[in-house]
């Protein structure tokens, strides 16, 4: 470790800044934001320093070693190499910490890249070796850290004393705070900046900390590619204590779940419901009643043929708190990766999503409406009834020559796309494996121009190696 990270309290303490240009201005902003009693030495200064009028002392003269007297820290930010060298040498002789901007060799301390969510402050540094890399890391962290993180820290500070009194055990306090910070209820109050409501919620949580009920978060995992997870979905699965997941959730996404979480497969897959829905409902209630933070992880979007609404009805009846994180549904994700737009001005003005499963009462969908032209028909879980679907659509007026695609394991590295016509649906379906999505409509023909994921000649083909099969017309 080349540098020891430290956070220095500069409030009211004397700091010397040598230089009066744009670089010095940036350092002045940082030092004044930290409350430093700043003295600036430079024959002239940039007019932009007027924004700090009255907040620093300006000595309109060239730097001499005598200027260091009484200061605890010094920064050299001039474009004069001789002046910078003199500042460094003089500060070193007096045992002062010194920073020469953009010159790590002549610096006993450096300014890190800062993410400010005061009182939470995150600092990142490469010791001056890779500033662009540090900037990229800072941008990533900025996007990950909530905007109101500082206010949340201030809030927890006000409640911390009561938490120590109510929860004597350190482990109990840690568990309380982990759950509180991960709670969607608290997050919602903080997002609305309802600080009083958030404080009341924390205090109420302490009053019933020993008998608290957990909560369930219904999370959409998307169609398979972990890069398509929403930021909020990633946060939820990394905070969960228990995760109940379907077979449609890809292994790459399950790898992102926190390591100490309990993983429970409730393996739903077309034609193979290894765990009845009633048992899944019972497990959700049981784990939440035990005080756990539970994530119900579903492939795609939980409200798109995922029975998410049914599970939430059970939780509502049991009085268990819940929330929902939407996901990218397979119809949107898989078609995009296959180069098939769902709508197109010249071919399809609407898109219809249906499930290939029969309704419990055996009632058929409105095939006349589904067979309409100028629309894209997307069928989930339709492989097992492909022959019936083909017959109904053709008999109700959809042309047998209508382009068709079956997208297998859409968006994943092993994605495979079979293309043909509606007349060939039943034959194509015998070559596909679940999970697959059936797409019917003239927009499928655009795949020849728009396919990009894993195609020959694509920069992604070697890495992902997905395949594309086309069934030659049987006519």
UniProtKB/TrEMBL annotation:
Pathway: Porphyrin-containing compound metabolism; siroheme biosynthesis; siroheme from sirohydrochlorin: step 1/1; Cofactor biosynthesis; adenosylcobalamin biosynthesis; precorrin-2 from uroporphyrinogen III: step 1/1; Porphyrin-containing compound metabolism; siroheme biosynthesis; precorrin-2 from uroporphyrinogen III: step 1/1; Porphyrin-containing compound metabolism; siroheme biosynthesis; sirohydrochlorin from precorrin-2: step 1/1. It catalyses: precorrin-2 + NAD(+) = sirohydrochlorin + NADH + 2 H(+); siroheme + 2 H(+) = sirohydrochlorin + Fe(2+); uroporphyrinogen III + 2 S-adenosyl-L-methionine = precorrin-2 + 2 S-adenosyl-L-homocysteine + H(+). The active site is at residues 246, 268. GO terms for biological process: cobalamin biosynthetic process; methylation; siroheme biosynthetic process. Belongs to the precorrin methyltransferase family. GO terms for molecular function: NAD binding; precorrin-2 dehydrogenase activity; sirohydrochlorin ferrochelatase activity; uroporphyrin-III C-methyltransferase activity. This is Siroheme synthase. Its EC number is 2.1.1.107, 1.3.1.76, 4.99.1.4. It comes from Aeromonas lusitana. PROSITE patterns: SUMT_1 (PS00839), SUMT_2 (PS00840). Pfam families: CysG_dimeriser, NAD_binding_7, Sirohm_synth_M, TP_methylase. InterPro entries: 4pyrrol_Mease (IPR000878), 4pyrrol_Methylase_sf (IPR035996), 4pyrrole_Mease_sub1 (IPR014777), 4pyrrole_Mease_sub2 (IPR014776), CobA/CysG_C (IPR006366), NAD(P)-bd_dom_sf (IPR036291), Siro_Cobalamin_biosynth (IPR050161), Sirohaem_synt_dimer_dom_sf (IPR037115). Residues 216-426 form the Tetrapyrrole methylase domain. S-adenosyl-L-methionine binds at residues 223, 299-301, 329-330, 381, 410. Residues 122-143 form the Siroheme synthase central domain. NAD(+) binds at residues 22-23, 43-44. Then it catalyzes the NAD-dependent ring dehydrogenation of precorrin-2 to yield sirohydrochlorin. Finally, it catalyzes the ferrochelation of sirohydrochlorin to yield siroheme. Keywords: Cobalamin biosynthesis, Lyase, Methyltransferase, Multifunctional enzyme, NAD, Oxidoreductase, Phosphoprotein, Porphyrin biosynthesis, S-adenosyl-L-methionine, Transferase. Residues 1-202 are annotated as: Precorrin-2 dehydrogenase / sirohydrochlorin ferrochelatase. Residues 214-475 are annotated as: Uroporphyrinogen-III C-methyltransferase. Transmembrane segments: none annotated.
């Amino acid at each position: 470790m080349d540098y020891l990270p430290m956070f220095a309290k500069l409030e009211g303490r004397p700091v010397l800044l040598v230089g009066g240009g744009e670089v010095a201005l940036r350092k002045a902003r940082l030092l004044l934001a930290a409350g430093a009693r700043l003295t600036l030495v430079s024959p002239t200064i940039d007019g932009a320093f007027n924004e700090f009028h009255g907040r620093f002392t300006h000595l309109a003269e060239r730097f001499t070693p005598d200027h260091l007297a009484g200061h605890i820290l010094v920064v050299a930010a001039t474009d004069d190499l001789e002046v910078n060298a003199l500042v460094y040498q003089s500060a070193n002789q007096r045992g002062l910490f010194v920073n020469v901007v953009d010159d790590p060799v002549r610096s006993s301390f450096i300014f890190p890249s800062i993410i400010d969510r005061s009182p939470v402050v995150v600092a990142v540094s490469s010791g001056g070796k890779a500033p662009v890399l540090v900037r990229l890391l800072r941008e990533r962290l900025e996007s990950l850290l909530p905007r109101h993180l500082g206010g949340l820290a201030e809030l927890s500070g006000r409640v911390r004393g009561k938490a120590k009194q109510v929860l004597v055990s350190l482990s109990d306090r840690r568990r309380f705070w982990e759950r509180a910070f991960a709670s969607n209820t608290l997050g919602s109050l903080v997002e609305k900046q309802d600080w009083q409501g958030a404080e009341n919620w924390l205090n109420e949580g302490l009053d019933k900390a020993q008998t608290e009920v957990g909560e369930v978060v219904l999370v959409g995992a998307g169609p398979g590619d972990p890069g398509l997870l929403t930021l909020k979905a990633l946060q939820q699965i990394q905070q969960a204590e228990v995760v109940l997941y379907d077979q449609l959730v890809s292994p790459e996404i399950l790898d992102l779940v926190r390591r100490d979480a309990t993983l429970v497969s409730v393996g739903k897959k077309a034609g193979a419901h290894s765990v009845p829905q009633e048992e899944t409902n019972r497990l959700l209630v049981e784990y939440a009643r035990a005080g756990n933070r539970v994530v119900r992880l579903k492939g795609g979007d939980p409200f798109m043929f995922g029975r998410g609404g049914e599970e939430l009805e059970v939780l509502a009846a049991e009085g268990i708190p819940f929330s929902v994180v939407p996901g990218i549904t397979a119809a949107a994700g898989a078609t995009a990766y296959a180069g098939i737009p769902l709508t197109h001005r010249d071919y399809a003005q609407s898109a219809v999503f249906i499930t290939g499963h029969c309704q419990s009462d055996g009632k058929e969908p409105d095939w006349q409406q589904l067979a309409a032209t100028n629309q894209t028909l997307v069928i989930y879980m339709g492989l097992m009834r492909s022959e019936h679907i083909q017959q109904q659509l053709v008999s109700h007026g959809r042309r047998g020559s209508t382009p068709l695609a079956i997208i297998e394991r859409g968006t994943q590295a092993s994605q495979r796309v079979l293309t043909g016509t509606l007349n060939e649906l039943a034959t194509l379906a015998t070559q596909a494996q679940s999970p697959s999505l059936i797409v019917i409509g003239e927009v499928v023909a655009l795949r020849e121009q728009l396919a990009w994921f894993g195609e020959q000649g694509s920069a992604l083909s070697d890495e992902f190696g997905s395949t594309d099969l086309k069934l030659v017309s049987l006519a």
